[in-house]
TrEMBL record:
The protein's annotated pathway: Carbohydrate degradation; glycolysis; pyruvate from D-glyceraldehyde 3-phosphate: step 1/5
Short name of one Pfam family: Gp_dh_C
Name this protein carries in UniProt: glyceraldehyde-3-phosphate dehydrogenase (phosphorylating)
Family named by the database record: Belongs to the glyceraldehyde-3-phosphate dehydrogenase family.
Lineage: superkingdom: Eukaryota
Organism: Vicia faba (Broad bean)
Amino acid sequence: MFVVGVNWNEYKPEYDIISNARCITNCLAPLAKVINDRFGIVEGLMTTVHSITITQETVDGPSSKYLRGGRAASFNIIPSSTKAVMAVGKVLPTLNGKLTGMSFSVPTVDVLVVDLTVRLERASTYDEKQKATIQRVRTRRLEEQNKVFAARKMCLVPDQNCLTPVLIRLYQKYMNLKRGKLVNHLTSIIKKPDPGLRKSGN
């Protein structure tokens, strides 16, 4: 599992199956990494507001998981648990077990908001946290992405998910393999004419 700005530099070309985690993890993990690297996180609580997903009910009905999960997605704010903090622990092992979280599904088509409240090892001001975050984004993100992915001859679009080129490369590799098999098959047909044509004199 890889998240841009967190552990994407651990990607290796021999990985054929990769995961770019989910939207909440991509929102939470980079921020948590910056804060943990600069100030140290003792423990934290994450609260996320998420738009409607395909797994929710369109109208009120029974739910096998929990009672609130059966409420109509378009008319309710539905609290639920989230596994995003577990995913953060996978891409940031130093934070494994230190974060907990909850999620609220809201009746909107597109939105994701994450609130992270943490207890730090070292005291800091709001300005220090803000400066650390801005500096990280401006000076390291594109620089490190270009350094790692350009070395592997992958195209890179600023402010776009860096693993997208990886997925494109894997898809192209798969399609080229299929195309190569088709070409070989057609070549074998051309080299070996149908015996039936010879018998008929055509």
